[in-house]
Amino acid sequence: MPLDSYYLGFDLSTQQLKCLAIDQNLKIVHSETVEFEKDLPHYHTKKGVYVHGDTIECPVAMWLEALDLVLSRYQKAEFPLEKVMAISGSCQQHGSVYWSSQAESLLEQLNGKSERDLLHYVSPAAFARQTAPNWQDHSTAKQCQEFEQCLGGPEKMAQLTGSRAHFRFTGPQILKIAQLEPEVYEKTKTISLVSNFLTSILVGHLVELEEADACGMNLYDIRGRKFSDELLHLIDSSSKDKTIRQKLMGAPMKATIAGTICKYFIEKYGFNVNCKVSPMTGDNLATICSLPLRKNDVLVSLGTSTTVLLVTDKYHPSPNYHLFIHPTLPEHYMGMICYCNGSLAREKIRDRLNEERDDNTKKSNDWTLFNQAVLDDSKDDDNELGVYFPLGEIVPSVKAINKRVMYNPNTGRIEREVEKFRDERHDAKNIVESQALSCRVRISPLLSDSNTRSQQKLNEDTIVKFDYDESPLRDYLNKRPEKAFFVGGASKNDAIVKKFAQIIGATKGNFRLETPNSCALGGCYKAMWSLLYESNKTTAPFDKFLNDNFPWNVMESISDVDNESWDHYNSKIVPLSELEKTLI
Ligand code: XUL
Questions:
Q1: Is the domain 6-285 a CATH 3.30.420.40 member?
Q2: In this protein, which residues make up the domain named Carbohydrate kinase FGGY C-terminal (predicted)?
Q3: Which end of the chain has the least Cβ crowding within 10 Å, N or C?
Q4: Helix ranges restricted to H, 15-123
């Protein structure tokens, strides 16, 4: 590659289109963002979407305008777009675009013309529907039921497609459109996700779905690596599912390069004629490409909600989380666990502790008391456990509830429920412990065996149950992630992150970093590696390439590997399982 090569990563999310550029040393060199509500007010979206009751959608034309606008800002900044060697990116998952029969010929114009803008060439005639259902839509309860009934329940659904049926997933969304808008469905020649919509515009013709993102549809048989005949048939039984199969353009794309950028972008913005486009993927999938995550590594995002992403080669699906094919590592999957109760639940306890004080920390969002309590290792709470779900929880799937119990440390069995603990401060420690422990036991079935064994005397034959998994305690005692990466607001809190690190128990280190650009950056790295790999400039698989080239100095190495603490928390696995059983 020429020495000054650049790589672009898009992030087409709910509220904005970002475009990030890195150089060949993986350094971020430029960024431009178009905010939909502010920069494109004529679409009248609120936070990027239209909300009508449970139905949430976005105008597709807005994305086309945003693409021209973000690239014109690059041009205005005199960024050398002719030196961009490859492009990829991240798009909101699950959204779907309904193309008309004219789409292909209209896109074809992008291979010759560039005087007008994308909107002029493509919209509205290329679309059978002017809006795309958005991932926040929750209007498909009926269709989700039909999906799960078709296969025989949530477990069967998760087994086949990596997730149980979800309102936002594209299969139920397409079924809803086929049922409620039959004329639109009829007029639709091609259906794409947001990811292959953007790839198609950049290469100037319709391209197939990207395989990892296709796992967010409830339609893809992940192990068979093909669409499920039964589920396609459920959407469209008219011609033995042939029509829907054609609409989805046959099998998803597995290639690392989707094509070369089309003439429109070369002539209008000065892109290089050889600039390659690697398929865009979903935002969470792009996020794992933004960090040097390898098999058995885990990313914990401590935000309003807690999200855990991990790389695994074990296909162990559950109705409580998601598995997707990994976008860049063959034979690997990405696990995604989403919890509802993260920061807000912790803040409630922090505020209560502060209220007890009569100095000026009272209402100041001050974490001092909370953090002192979290790090208090006098172990005077070793027979206590609490779960704190002010909002209904996804994992475990239960209604809003707070529950505190005392258990017998010798057997792990619950002895009694209590209104309060002996000391209110114990709530701070217990909430962080039970949140982290919940992450730990849920990732466990997705991890390979490690060599560590518990030093404690525990009855390893005791059966523990978490959600749909029932297995002996022993299965949880020798599974540890290798590296753990902490991101999101609460990762800045030393006490919270330290406790999470102790309990999750990574064997090769804990890291913390700020990731304002993770989706777009994952796109940049995917673009760069795909091009180098395709052109034989590297033979390294994606994870090795990124580990070798990653700017590790952006990362803070936090708390050393702490085997003693990890072992200590093994004794709370049985009590947590027992406590969760009482919530259902
Ligand atoms: C993932 C999901 C969201 C959207 C947001 O399943 O629905 O993360 O992708 O962009």
A1: yes
A2: 299-530
A3: C
A4: 36-39, 60-76, 103-108, 118-122
- Of ligand 1's atoms, which has the minimum distance to the CA of residue 13? 10
Is residue 469 within 8 Å of 444, Cβ to Cβ? no
Helix axes 343-355, 426-443, angle to 10 degrees: 170
6-285 matches 343-494+560-581 in fold: yes
Q: Which token pair is 248?
A: 């989805």
17-65: per-residue pLDDT in tens? Answer: 999 999 999 999 999 999 999 999 999 999 999 999 999 999 999 999 9
* Domain residue ranges in the chain: 6-285, 343-494+560-581
pLDDT digits (tens, 9 = 90+) for 347-393: 999 999 999 876 665 567 899 999 999 999 887 778 999 999 999 99
This prediction's pTM: 0.96
Positive or negative, the CA dihedral 95, 100, 105, 106 is negative
Helix, coil or strand: residue 135? coil
Give the distance (Å) from ligand 1 centre to CA of residue 385: 32
Residue 556's DSSP bridge partners are 512
Residue 82 token pair: 């002719």
pLDDT bin (cut points 50, 70, 90) of residue 237 is confident
Q: Which residue's CA lies nearest to atom 3 of ligand 1?
A: 93
d(CA 409, CA 412): 5
Q: Which atom number of ligand 1 is nearest to the Cα of residue 166?
A: 6
